[in-house]
Design a protein that fits this description.
- The protein is α/β, with parallel strands linked by helices.
- It folds into four domains: 3-130, Response regulator (Rossmann fold, 3-Layer(aba) Sandwich); 143-312, Rossmann fold; 315-377, Orthogonal Bundle (Helicase, Ruva Protein, domain 3), CATH 1.10.8; 389-465, Homeodomain-like (Arc Repressor Mutant, subunit A, Orthogonal Bundle), CATH 1.10.10.60.
- The protein is 43% helix and 15% strand.
- The protein contains 18 helices and 22 strands.
- It has helices at 11-22, 34-43, 60-69, 86-94, 107-130, 148-161, 177-186, 205-213, 230-233, 249-261, 298-304, 321-329, 339-347, 353-367, 408-426, 431-438, 442-451, 459-465, and strands at residues 3-7, 27-31, 48-52, 54-55, 58-59, 77-81, 99-102, 139-140, 143-144, 167-170, 195-199, 214-215, 227-228, 238-242, 263-264, 273-274, 278-283, 307-310, 336-337, 372-373, 389-390, 456-457.
- A five-stranded parallel beta sheet has the order 2-1-3-6-7, sandwiched between helices. It has a five-stranded parallel beta sheet with strand order 11-14-17-10-18. It has a two-stranded antiparallel ribbon with strand order 4-5.
- The longest helix has 24 residues, at 107-130.
- The chain is flat and about 85 Å long.
- The chain starts with a strand and ends with a helix.
- Mean pLDDT is 84; it is low at 132-139, 385-398 and 458-466.
Length: 466
């Protein structure tokens, strides 16, 4: 049973709110104004405050600010008022209100809000008491991960950083290709030199040649001064060309010459300049000559891809999600994510990859109304699973026997898969419970499921679908 402090100067509304919260089994403390509310807060353990704004003895927003700045700042405050104007709403939410409800109340919405507020305080208290530890991520700048897939990327970054050869980075949009490029630069011997990035898709084609190679005064209408291009500005550092697949044919030819002999001229100039920068490129489009719809000249591809790094999509390295979440929470009002919310994050397919995850966490941290992001703060639809196997399906393997043929590695893999399926069957498809039974962390469970090609839908999820 939780204790709800109701601060409302109209007796009828105060008693109505009391009756509503008591239907949930909670205890209600009543206050007609701010002075009594302060006294009750000083001597009682309060789990949630329902606070009117206009009170006879003061402004409810003042009490809200006192709570947010004092020792009781973990107590969620739901503002309840007949005045739903924009200024009060904005001020209340800015000053830390959990939610803002207007009279007359929609009772189910009111009760749902109270329950969410109490849960938020419980999660916050758990966070403060347990201080759960997140494994330290392998990290280069904002590039985070400890999965097998990311370990392979770290190795390639290290090898690329030890040379000055061109690097081509491929992968879906939002996977962090520019972060890989920056990591290569930061760990190279040219780390103190410029890192110059150009998004080729964002520059109008009519200006792109000048952007890359520069121009002389009078080279074309509007060229009133000499301008150095990005190749020249990169000096002995790194020139990063993002979306290389959008580079038109004529400029592909000019870039090929730069890579072949290191020479280029500004537009309208006769002076031959030497390129001393390492060129790193990235694209989400097909660029290998054998791929259908290849957008690069074959000879340019082989010049660019002396080292090629393919960045995996987030769905292929789900075990990195808790680390990425912890990284995204830095600098936000929230400090953690609830177990249920993390389950949603782990199950989602992330078509926008790491960029989408970062956006979701930053957004949810602002909207959660506390220090812990819970399911209601996540975007609608994010918790819809795309799993295709039910918990009943996972139990079809009744027993495991030592295979008569095959290697030791194959036998161990078969046993591991059987143990995963059995734990999931016993847990009804609940991944957190299955991980507990197996004695492993949930990120490790997800990594194992990916490794064995298993995608599971729980009994509850199956019932919802039906």
């Amino acid at each position: 049973m939780s204790t709800i402090l109701i601060v409302e100067d109209e007796k009828g509304i105060r008693e109505g709110l009391q009756a509503a919260v008591e239907t949930l089994g909670h205890r209600a403390l009543l206050s007609p104004g701010i002075s009594v509310a302060r006294e009750l807060l000083s001597r009682s353990e309060i789990d949630c405050v329902l606070l009117d704004i206009r009170l006879r003895d003061g402004d409810g927003l003042e009490l809200l600010r006192e709570l947010r700045q004092g020792a009781r700042r973990d107590v969620p405050v739901v503002m309840v008022t007949a005045y739903g104007d924009s200024e009060r709403t904005i001020r209340a939410m800015r000053d830390g209100a959990f939610d803002y409800l207007t009279k007359p109340f929609d009772v189910p919405v009111l009760l749902s809000t109270v329950e969410r507020a109490i849960k938020q305080r419980t999660l916050t208290q758990t966070l403060h008491s347990e201080q759960p530890k997140v494994p330290s991520p392998l990290q280069a700048g904002s590039l985070v991960g400890t999965s097998t897939a990311m370990l392979a990327i770290w190795k390639l970054i290290g090898r690329a950083a030890a040379t000055q050869v061109p690097v081509l980075i491929t992968g879906e949009t939002g996977t962090g290709k520019e972060l890989v490029a920056r990591a290569i630069h930061d760990y190279s011997t040219s780390a103190q030199q410029p890192f110059v990035a150009v998004n080729l898709a964002a520059v109008p084609s009519s200006l792109l040649e000048s952007e890359l190679f520069g121009h002389e005064k009078g080279a074309f209408t509007g060229a009133t001064v000499r301008r150095a291009g990005r190749l020249e500005l990169a000096a002995q550092g790194t020139l990063f060309l993002d979306e290389i697949g959008d580079l038109e044919g004529a400029l592909q030819t000019k870039l090929l010459r730069v890579l072949a002999d290191g020479c280029f001229e500004r537009i309208g100039g006769s002076e031959t300049l030497q390129n001393r920068a390492r060129v790193i490129t990235a694209t989400h489009k097909p660029v290998h000559p054998a791929e259908p719809g290849c957008v690069l000249r074959e000879d340019l591809y082989y010049r660019l891809a002396v080292i090629e790094i393919s960045v995996p999509p987030l769905r292929a390295r789900r075990s990195d999600i808790p680390l990425l979440v912890a990284h995204a929470l830095e600098g936000t009002p929230a400090r953690a994510v609830s177990e249920e919310a993390m389950g949603c994050l782990m199950n989602y397919r992330w078509p926008g990859n790491v960029r989408e995850l970062m956006h979701v966490i930053k957004r949810s941290a602002v909207l959660c109304g506390g220090e812990v992001i819970d399911v209601p703060a996540l975007p609608i639809g994010l918790c819809t699973t795309s799993s295709t196997v039910t918990a009943k399906d996972v139990g079809r393997t009744e027993s495991w026997q030592i295979p008569e043929d095959g290697t030791l590695k194959e036998a161990v893999q078969q046993l591991e898969k059987y143990m995963l399926l059995r734990a999931l069957q016993r847990a009804g498809g609940n991944r957190s419970e299955a991980a507990r039974q197996l004695g492993i962390g949930r990120p490790n469970l997800y990594a194992k499921l990916e490794e064995h090609g298993l995608t599971i839908r729980s009994d509850a999820e199956e019932s919802e679908k039906a």
